[in-house]
Amino acid sequence: MKVAPASCCVSIIFLLAASSLHFCKAQLLQHSKRSLQFEFPGNLSHRNCGLERNSDARAWLAKIEIFDEAENTVTRCYGSVISNRFIITASDAGCVEEEAVASQVSVSFAKSGFRSVVKPSRLIVEPQNPLAILEFESDLLKDGVVPICVWNQPIGSPVHENGGIATIVGEEVSASRKVTAGKFKVVSNEECWEAINHGSFYFKSNDLCLMYQEGLSRVCLKGWGAPMQFKIGDRWFLRGVNSNFFNTEDKSAECSYFRIYKFTDVARYIKFITENTDIKLRELATDFYFPSNLNHADCGRVQNNNDRAWQVKVSVDYFVCYGSVISKYHVVTAAYCVNGKDPSDVIVTFAKNRFQIQESLRPSEIVVHPQYDSESLQANLAILKFDRNLLEGGVLPICLWNKPIEANGSLITDNQGIASVAGEDGNSGKKVVGKFKVSSTADCKAEVNPQARKNFKDPDLCLIYQEGVSSVCLRGWGAPMQFKIGDRWYLRGVNNDYLSTHKEVECSVFRVLGFTDVARHIKFFAENIKITPKPSIPQNYRSYPNCGVVHSDPGIQLAFRGTDAKLRDFPWSAALFKTSTTSPPEYTCTGSLISKKFILTAAHCVYEARALLPPQALIVALGKEQLNDGWTSDSGVQLHSLRKIIAHEEYNLDDHRNDIALLELNRDVEFSVIISPVCLWFKTRNLDIIQGWNGTIAGWGLVADYDTGNILQKLELPIFSIDECSSIHGKESYYARKLQQSPSFCAGYLFKNTNPCNGDSGSGLVLQEENVFFVRGIVSETIARNVYGAKFCDPEFPAVFTDVAGFREWILEKAGKPMKQIMAVCRTERVWLREILAEFLGTFFLVFIGNNSVAQKVLSEEKYGQFISINFSYGIGVMIGVLVAGAASGGHLNPAVTFALAAVGKFPFRKVLYYMLAQYLGAFVAAACTYMIYIDALENFDEGIRQIVGEKGTAGIFATYPQDYLSLGVGFVDQVLGTAVLLAMICAITDPRNQVVSRGMVSVLVGMVVVAIGLSLGYNCGYPNNPARDLAPRFFTAIAGWSFDVFSYEYWSWIPVLGPHVGALLGTVVYMFFVEMHWPTAVKSS
């Protein structure tokens, strides 16, 4: 069906606008947690492959007929559509044989009742290859034809998938020869050999065999080239192509003549398929790939609730630990169990083999985490490497954690914070799985004896036995802490301790379990296993793009009595110099670069003689490693003057409360390897989550013997709790006073003559999270001592730091003040530009609020949204949009409204183009924002496999799609009448000679009209009634992963564009004809 000219015009307008958004699209896809950079996400042969509707497992089935002129015979077989232009079938068994030519072949499709016929342009048949490929010039994916997915799972999977039950689509062995689907059992080749004479002659080791089974198979089928398919999730996958069928020796058996089926295993011919078609699949036989950021394609997927398929027992001498299989050749366990051990002394047995010693293996190598500490049990992880494949006998790997680990993150929401632990019953010794509540470090410390509290430090994880949840007391070093998310199990922790409580309660001996957090050590796994996990801290949690990244590992030692630091390890370090007209600049403090325009430092660094320094009194040097070797000796140094110095309004010169300041630079910083910003702390202010961590500072403060350091120094400092710092003997009152008066904390060493000193003031204390550095503190003050009659730091005591987390909002507010200048520059007096901006923003609000309501309904499976909530959301969205844009542009928000008003002379035609452009752009950006907000929910809902419609269809979040029963004609009428009602009511509400509506009520009444239309006309196709609300988001889905099939699906996409334009004009004319044109020229006053 051809698209009407009006639709073409609107499409052209939108495409012109969309070209300017190419960069935005690229940035949006770049920040997706699961990459959309591959043409077939999740290693699929086609984005929409295998997504059948109405339980139709034949949408890809093709009938192939080969006419032999010499014999005057027709050979009939079957094949499967695998992409827009290719069909796969059998090349032997008298189907598409080597000598066949394309002109002899005719193909028809099950979706058309095998009536429409097409001919291939080329036949691809290779000697000794049991598969053939048919290539076509025309697009096969029309009239409901859908490609089946080419197998992308590990090759051993058919026995596991669907319980080993495959579906075959072929023709019945009956007079009707009806094409239908039947279910058959996957069996071993040996079973097939036994069922027929000389079976080994017919079956090769790589062939697949299916057998008719009473009670399961309900039909006898035949059909060379017919597909052997499995439904996995929402998609159908092609695993085999029928190459023969055999009868059984038992002639009395049901369906004896077509009881055994031989299939060519498609999974073993991926290379042949990819070389001869447009499909891009990774080869499956040897490739170790990780779709959707998984460490193994089949990780964590178990049947029959077997949540121990990866569990192993690690025995060293008489000491027993546990571990988890995480790949084909690797096991993770606790370093405590195997540290310092020879691999030959380690015996590993498997839960799937009931830990039988005769099934044991010994690792070839043991890799202990380089940061493992046997006293504190920090980084208590080890990897056991094996030379033999572990994934046999039902053993499966567990998935490594691949979700974000931010505060209030995954552990709280997943499974309501209830974790499963696979270990050993502390009473009976039986191997069991128990459930435990994830608890805070503080709660765990409260449960155990005081001497054991040091065992719990963030970022470790802690579980507590909980009555009503836990049913067993567990123990087991190295035991996995696991969560089931969707249909997979994920490893989040490895047990590094189990402790008794001082309370008289149930399970008192093994009540508290400590775990090393696997999610914080993904780099360790990536370095020792061939995986490529993505970082757990996404860009959107950083205060500045790409902040906190260094180009080498950070240093780990000192400032006073410290070691030299490399600037590329601390590229945010800024040296602050006081200027003078009579002498060279003098170093005074350190700061931290947090953006292109701002330096973060301490307030006391910008005061002199109790007065705030003027901006010209300071110079900032970035990229400078050596202080006293002139200004040009360091390569890459940038010097910056200041535009403004911003000290905290409540900074107190006497007690240094609120000791924080920002320096605004005159010009932007040019980032490089040695100059880049650090991230602001992004988690809660709660100090408990960083207690026991080590932070690092870098500065040019005093070193040994109180000499100024010429080279940048680094110092790693342990962070104290408030109680620990306030309890330092002889200094209780000092620290108690300092730590209570404003957001602050202390860090450093006690009686080790190593701490921040004079000149380190303003340095940022940075913490590392997944290779990203965040500034949490600013060096503020130290205890002083008199040295040679002058005040210097006392390096025996910890320093006091301003807590950046307590001033994050202040920093963002002050650093955002340049926005006022930007607003002054950007303000326009041009009416046309003001109208464009207003239409853009108003349409954005309409689509943003409406789409988000649909997203909540779909992605929560109606737990957080219903049909009525969507109607009210769109009504409120329209109300807000009109309220925002009404005074500036009239609040059209709809190309159909703009077109209709212009057509009847109520709006200038010269404005139509840019009004429509603004509306389409606003709707497009709104769709992009909805996508960004709900990307995690989308990934959780469909596992990264974008579907247009169906059970897991999500394209309807952004654009409208018709119900299955709806014809195009009725759909068009629906749109025409719905939009006509909308425009007639808008004309009535805004008609000054009708019932007078106050200006403030216009938006409310228009919103109510939209709600009414939705409640009465929303069932058929979701009442788009607005081309911008449908076409722009549809275009977004096309480029964001759903493919351009969103435009061809059911040939629907033109209706929400043309229908509203026709309806809007109709509604406007109807109101004018029936009401408006009949008003008297003058209205009598009453």
UniProtKB/TrEMBL annotation:
This protein's UniProt keywords: Disulfide bond, Glycoprotein, Membrane, Signal, Transmembrane, Transmembrane helix, Transport
Peptidase S1 domain boundaries: 300-530, 559-816
GO cellular component: membrane
Keyword Signal: yes
A Pfam family recorded for this sequence: MIP
Main location: membrane
Membrane topology according to the record: Multi-pass membrane protein
Descriptive protein name: Peptidase S1 domain-containing protein
Species name: Cloeon dipterum
